[in-house]
Amino acid sequence: MLIVSVCGLAACRPVDTVVPTVTTALAQITAVPTATPVTPTLTAVPPTATHTTTPTQTATQTATTMPSPTATATHTPSPTPTATPDLAVYGRLDALDPTGVTAVFWHNYDGYAGRILGDIIADFNQNNSYGITIQPLYWQRFNYLVDAVQTGLAEGEDLPALVAAYPDHTVSYVAGEGVVDVRPYLTHPTYGFTPSDLADFFPYAQVQSAAPLYGLPLHRTLEMLYVNNGWLASLDLPFVGAPQTPAQFAQAACAAADPAQRRVGYEVEASSGSFLAWIHAFGGDVYDEASQTFTFNTPAAVAAMMLLQQLIQDGCAAPASGFTYQDNFARQQTLLGPGTTRGLYFYDRAVHNFNAQPFSWSVSPLPHSGEMPAVQLSGPNVNVLRTDPETQFAAWLFLAYFYSPEVQARWAQVNSYLPARAAAASYLEDTFAADPAYATAFGWLPYAVDPPPLTGQYDVWRALVDAYSRILQNEDVTAVLQALDETVNE
Predict the structure, then answer these.
(1) Whether residues 99 and 154 fall in one domain
(2) Rounded distance, CA 421 to CA 287, Å?
């Protein structure tokens, strides 16, 4: 899908440009704490993959190694919990009969994603041996869906068996005693996953723990950099390829910046996902699970925000405006573009729209302070809500089907979603070949983590965006982060 070609260096960067100094921005990096390296248990692809085309626009694979499912599935799951499931909640799983049960699934996927989800559900309905019917119900506004679940929990109204929910929603549903821990299903010797199946899930899915599991990842995207390869190579930097450290990132951004040509090295998207991803990339952990409190005013967060703020002040970066950063990247006004895997199609389309001869581009993790990539995910989970044992069991049997490698691969191809299982790679070979950037992002999943379960829903997420925007507008970083701590912990 992503097919572009290599431009000449003259087309990537004009001569005799004025380059802002990198000295001030680099000074902000000296206090960056070193993150504890993550020891991966999966084999990742290289950090970047290049998109090229021949003159006839035929895609070629130039710099990527396809993930190998046989090599990646090497996790060792934790022992299966020995506690007996609560009979009032689960019933006797070996004795339940879900024949003919209808389980409702509330979600907010429309368009192509909604059609593919509908097809997956239809296939399950047609082929499961129990005659179970999963009945999808689309909600146009996600906040209406959340309100309906919370009202149902508070007033004892009928609820669906399955619901799409972001982590903060799940927290509130668990508090209302409305969510079922799926681990007794997940580890059941007959209806759950085998140890090798559990080992195949990526770490972010958290299936290998013995702790309660109140949701499984419904879809995921991840934050990353979009890189103009030819322009970057023309800058004569002291490193090869995309910047992997904060210092390299600052060097590249400032070397690319040219006020006379309205060029910058990077555009900063003021989104909650970007905010959390940059903090995570600098080794920051904003959530303490034991105390269930958030701390944004940390050395790692301050260092990350100070770097971005200083790059803007030096003219090396600029705050993004809407989604114009994709067009600016395509026009070669921005060296490094922000975004997620969800943006792969849109970046590719923009590069083709603005260039008769599309240039070579790639993707890379955000620059990180540790040895391994620090990759931040985003996306909703699916919760099993408490209804009755038979309906919950029927819902689980659908999830067991949904999390098979083949179905995960089918679902992952929607909007460049990322699957929960490594073995999905064996069904994605054609996708990897056509879309090397997607293959590259897949290879980072061993390092990927979910964002913290921020409660308070939209008010809290808006507070993150507001704080990030104020920092990018040169307000005092420490003061803004301290105020954010007070807001999110109220």
Answers:
(1) yes
(2) 26
Of residues 367 and 37, more confidence is placed in 367
What is the Cα–Cα distance from 409 to 397, expressed in whole angstroms?
18
Alpha helices by DSSP H, listed for 288-377, are 299-313, 324-330, 344-354
User: Residue 129 has what DSSP assignment?
Assistant: T
Range 324-353 average pLDDT: 97
Q: Compute the CA torsion angle 476, 479, 485, 488 (nearest 10 deg).
A: -70
Q: Domain of residue 393: give its range.
A: 76-220+379-417
**Tokens for 120?**
């997956």
DSSP-based three-state secondary structure for 427? helix
**Among candidates 211, 210, 207, which has minimal Cα distance to 399?**
207
Confidence of residue 175 (pLDDT cuts 50, 70, 90): confident
Residue 433 is assigned to a structural domain of this protein: no
**Helix or strand holding residue 164 (H, E):** strand 162-165
- Backbone torsions φ then ψ of 174, nearest 5 degrees: -65, -40
**pTM of the shown model:** 0.83
Is the pLDDT reported for residue 33 higher than 80?
Answer: no
Residue with token string 């999966």: 42
Cβ count within 10 A of residue 204: 20
Is 24 inside a domain boundary? Answer: yes
Residues 175 and 158 in one domain: yes
The domain that holds 258 is classified in CATH as 3.40.190.10
Q: Rounded to an integer, what distance in angstroms lies between the CA atom of residue 81 and that of residue 227? A: 45
Could you tell me which of 461, 397, 391, 430 has the C-alpha nearest to residue 168?
461
* Tokens coding 452: 């913290």
Are residues 357 and 481 part of one domain? yes
How many structural domains is the chain composed of? 2
| SS3 of residue 44 by DSSP | coil
Q: Is residue 92 part of a domain?
A: yes
The predicted pLDDT at position 322 comes to: 84
Per-residue DSSP letters for 142-163?
HHHHHHHHHHHHHHT----SEE
The per-residue pLDDT for 52 is: 43
Query: According to the model, what pLDDT value does residue 455 have?
Result: 59
The answer to whether position 125 is within a domain reads yes
* Distance separating alpha carbons of residues 246 and 22, to the nearest angstrom: 12
Report the relative pairing of strands 102-107 and 162-165 from DSSP bridges. Answer: parallel
Residue where the block lists tokens 């000074």 = 27
